[in-house]
Amino acid sequence: MKKSLLIFASALAVTSLSAQDAVSPAIVTNACSVKVSANGVYVVAQDQGGMPIIYNTVDKLKTEYPNYYPGIGTCVSNNGIVVGQTATNLQGAIMQNGKASVPTTLRNYVNSALESITPDGSRSCGYITNPNMGPMNVPIYCDMTATGGLKKLNQLPYPEKDFLGDIPQFITAVRISDDGKTIIGQVMDATGFFCYPIIYQEDEAGNWNYSLPSQENFNPDHLQLPKWPEEPDLFYPVITDYMTPENKANWEADMEKYESSNGLFPDPWKNVLKYMDQDEYDSYQEALKIYNQELAEYNKKVDEYWEQYNKVTAGSQFALNVMALNPQGTLAAMSQQLPAESDSGVTDMASGYVLHLYDLTDNSVKIINSKYKTVIPIQILSDGTVISYNPGNYVDYVLLPGADEYITFEEYIQSTHPTWLSWMQKELKGTVYEETDKGYESTEALVAGIICFSADGSVMAGGLRSEFYSYVFGNGAAGVEGIAAEAQDGRIVVYNLNGVKLLDTKNVEELNGLAKGLYIINGKKVIIK
């Protein structure tokens, strides 16, 4: 075990579960997990058609929303509001208590989506079809009502040009922080081949600004991208244009006989001079030669353009729609693709990924060039732990705060939730091939699928697309009434999710002074509403 893990495990010894009997998860059939609400009460999963199934970890009930899709970010609030879009006409939608609808404002746009929502349900983000000239889709955030309605739609600022000076194809807003003041997304360049991070932040005055944290890393040699070659007016020479009307009629009649005879009638192309004299034939051949020369010159310019384009855009491609943001809005993660070798044009395959961790408090970037070459981020927990997975084999890895290398998911669960491990080892363990810096290696690993946690890591859901079921460990938050009953003969000790003690009292009434949110009270998760 790595030193960083040993330190992490010892730090957890005070607060993590002691050795207990092994536990089994709840199983949600016909559903692959997508997200867990910050308080751990709601799990958003998708059926095989991509439609959302909401599982309540407290009352164990499922709610389905046919004909809708969940958002691809943190799409569920602590009170069960789910944002997404319709499956039919792809318009932003809100789902809650078994009912779904498209807000009136979003009906004005041909294409829209709501991708994420804050835990308290007060703000969401997504995109709309651009009402003006420019990118196809532009980023938005929406202030919402206490009952899950859309109060106001606001357009976020965005760059009018991509990093090569052209109009971006589209710009997204995918994940939002708990306070709704930080949003991350991506800019897709004009060609539709390369996307890169954009981060939106609201200042104290309520003004929004954006930053492009990796743009300075693009095109480090400041190469000039040539103009796309102007396409010449090429006309493919048609042989019948060089024949007399009579010979043209004979050619077309014989060609029709040839095509309908399954090759039994002689092919006119094998005896062209039957239909034209030598001068006519030579004129046709000269026109064909000129056409081929002009086409070859144009294709050469296109090849030169893409060759230079690949040099200019080296390092700019990030995994599309794959990103993570911690609840505090201070740490973001995206994976840059390492392009595979190709003999032609723009490559759309990745030979691996390099994780970019953006510290938004000081605008610094930490790059994790892991020995595991195909790992992308799923989620960042409150303590800065980055949960990641391999999209090729659904094996998961964890980057601990301050670490420079991933540990396996099995190592992480062993340290944080050992009571979950025996079930996972029995049900999820398998032999997989993992690409490392030494090539493909066979290894035994937990094939845990796409996993997601509550903000504090106490509730976890995983989804296996191959067998199509989800498993859920942990229960949702306790109620304040239960804590108050326990506190009648003792003290009430309250911590926030960052481990800061907020209260140590015997007076239950002091709980009323806490702001709405999730707390650790006497060792249990509690929602203050």
Keywords:
529 residues, alpha+beta, 6 helices, elongated, disordered N terminus
Outline the structure in words.
- The protein has 529 residues and is an alpha+beta fold.
- The two termini are 41 Å apart.
- The longest helix has 35 residues.
- Helices cover 16% and strands 35% of the residues.
- The strands form 9 sheets. Strands 14, 15, 16, 17 and 18 form a 5-stranded antiparallel beta sheet that branches. The protein has a 4-stranded antiparallel beta sheet with strand order 1-31-30-29, with no helix packed on it.
- Helix 4 runs antiparallel to helix 5.
- The N terminus is likely disordered.
The helix fraction, in percent, is: 10-25%
Distance between the termini: 41 Å
Shape: elongated
Low-confidence stretches: 1-20, 342-349, 478-488
Mean pLDDT: 85
Number of DSSP E strands: 35
Number of helices: 6
Rounded Rg? 30 Å
Biggest pleated sheet: 5 strands, antiparallel
**Structural class computed from helices and strand pairing:** alpha+beta
Task: Quote the beta fraction.
Answer: 25-35%
